[in-house]
Amino acid sequence: MLEKALSGNKRYWIWLFALGAVIGFGVLNYLKQFEYGLGITGLSRDVTWGFYIAQFTFLVGVAASAVMVVLPYYLHNYKAFGKMTILGEFVAIGACIMCMTFIFVDMGMPFRIVNVFLHPSPTSMMFWDTVVLFGYLVLNVFISHFSLNAEKKGIAPPKWIKFFIILSIPWAVSIHTVTAFLYSGLAGRPFWLSAVIAPRFLASAFAAGPALLIIIAMILRKVANFDIGKKAMQQLAIIVTYAMCLNIFLILMELFTAYYSSMPEHTSHFTYMFFGLGDKTALVPWMWFSVVLAVLSLVLLLNPKTRKKENVLVFACIILFISIWIDKGMGMVVTGFIPSPLGTVTEYLPTFPEVAITLAVYALGAGIITVLYKIALGVRKSIA
Q: Hey, CA dihedral for 90, 202, 208, 239, is it positive or negative?
């Protein structure tokens, strides 16, 4: 099936070449980081998790969101999602690889990652996060390979594959739940010390992931004449809408708990995020921009008339995706360190090398997803 990825029109190769250029530039910056250490990043003694870990956290949710098309199709026999399942699995594969790459580039000595397997520690959340993330990647590669191979041969997938498909559903929930436990298990960081973190992570994931699938589906319709169908598109939009409503509700519950209790160790983080502490206001415009995008997207999605207009739907999904990316990609992670447990306010902003490396990792993921989609669409075209 790999031969399907080796044939394509001019736009396909230009796109891959552009992604390759971004990856190459990012690799050059990573080599500089590897030589000089994390001192070239914006990280400091007080802020030890930054842009890389923020992207990891966000993308774990994107990977987990594949369950929102797999579950209705396989458990509830919702046939409208038939064309979407393999696309959701491919997004999960790309997102998992990006997650692992972000962990790799965040480590000063990246090859020490093998110690997780050589010296496993079952009491460590990081160990379990590694296990569930790697396991989820293997499951999606396994399932998509056998499903697509069966489709190529014009036969039904083997019956035993359904066991692994069903297994992937709770596994998808587990990868973002365990990631949330990495944060909520840190007693010294009051901002993350909340039982709401895990459900909030899942709600935001189940909004951002399907929103991304809608955007990708619209792109594929234009560039590859692949149509998932209006019914599937609108059903995904409803999933995005309800998940975003739940996500905003959980955020409001956190804000109420923090400010009604008036406990400084809880309120100070939210105050920094939305109003700043003294002259430290680096995150404030980003967070309010995220709020505006979230509200606007929800207004457009809650109204059936605007939601059913495809151009409006895609716009709403784009701004929703950006809003959640800002919230989890910067606000959730960085704010947990500001102020520090000792009350020190040390701001963090990513440096140019960090941004270049981050873009390279995203380009890597986009390239993987592009090639996988090319293979899947090539197989379906050959049997049409």
A: positive
Determine phi and psi for 231, rounding to 5 degrees: -65, -45
- Please count the other Cβ atoms lying within 10 Å of the Cβ belonging to residue 292: 12
CA 222 distance to own-chain centroid? 24
For 146-172, the pLDDT digits (tens) are: 887 877 777 777 888 888 888 888 898
Report d(CA 60, CA 176) in Å as an integer.
6
Number of H helices, E strands in the chain: 15, 0
Q: What angle do CA 215, 292, 278 make, to 5 degrees?
A: 130
Structure tokens at 357: 């490396």
- State the DSSP code for 280: B
How far apart (Å, rounded) are the C-alpha atoms in residues 274 and 269? 9
Cβ atoms within 10 Å, residue 225: 9
Q: Is 241 exposed, middle or buried (0-12, 13-18, 19+ CB in 10 A)?
A: buried
Per-residue H/E/C for 153-205: HCCCCCCCHHHHHHHHHHHHHHHHHHHHHHHHCCCCCCCCCCCCHHHHHHHHH
Asked whether the whole model's pTM tops 0.90, one would answer: yes
Q: What is the CATH number of domain 2-383?
A: 1.20.1630.10
Q: Which helix (H) or strand (E) holds 341?
A: none
Judge residue 312's burial from the number of C-beta atoms within 10 Å of its C-beta, 0-12 exposed, 13-18 middle, 19 or more buried: middle
Overall residue count recorded for the chain in this entry: 384
Per-residue pLDDT tens over the stretch 54-109: 999 999 989 988 888 887 877 777 777 777 887 888 899 999 999 999 999 998 88
